[in-house]
Amino acid sequence: FQLSILFLSNLHTVIILFWIQTQLPSLPYNEVLASSLSKIVNILTLKDIFGYENSNQATTIALFVVITIYFLITFTVLGLSLLAHHLKDKAMKKFSSVLVYLGQAQIALGFWVINSFLMQYISAGYSEEDLDIKNALQGIACVLIMFNYLVTFFFAAFSYDPFLSSNILSAHSPVPQILDILFKAVAAPLMFFFQNDGNLVENWLLVLAAASVMVGKCYFLIDRFPYYNYKALKISIIYSTVAGLISAINLIVQFIEIKESVSLVNILYIQTLLVPIVVKFCYGYWKRELLHYISLPEENIQNPKEALKKLFALLFLFKHTKFT
To answer: What are residue 227's DSSP bridge partners?
Structure first.
């Protein structure tokens, strides 16, 4: 389950980067592939799906109630988990396990889905007779968005065991999760509060945020080995490499797009060729680092970072090597 959540979280980040990419070039109307891809990515990112204009008043209020109940449940589980930790009650520790799964699901999809509905509701049009209801719900939406950000950053920082445990996503550093949420926290308001009809400032903010965060995350994963579990780190490195490549290409295209000399189809062809090459290079480099730390003598370890990488290498050796 946890690896599936990690897979969905990384895949969702890549989809958001694709959405950003569809906004950069001036797409000719005869490019069927580009137009179709843009529509698919809009659906997958929930762009223009939620909103006051697309639902009746009863449905909108019902969604507000569901989100409010969800946060009440989240805060209740969080409170019980903290109480169990304080009292050292083993019977209540199950709430901590529930909180871990809840937090990882919130980071992977919940944060984005809630932001999508609430932010698009705030930015949607409305009729004059609904003004009072609209103003009231807008105020509630702002509060819920604030809760969504606070809860998600809390989960990103504290829902991953810092020590080796049965938690598959246990990690000695929460930096990769925080970087993921930081990117989505910046991208969400830019995507949902603005129509993105070729706004140059918005495009620059999106591509700069994506490039800095994604390239930084990829470097951190390869340099620090933050996860204790081999599969978790492998999935993260592969998807982060793809995300870093797409965000870097988006940044380059942002310069070229000013001259309108490139189309989305051209970019897709280039990416299709580069993705396997770059992934193989980064993954190969990481595997060489792993083999280096397997053979590194303990007396040559110079700092805590190298000690943690040595620990990961030994765990990999014991769990994924068959002795005869």
So the answer is: 171
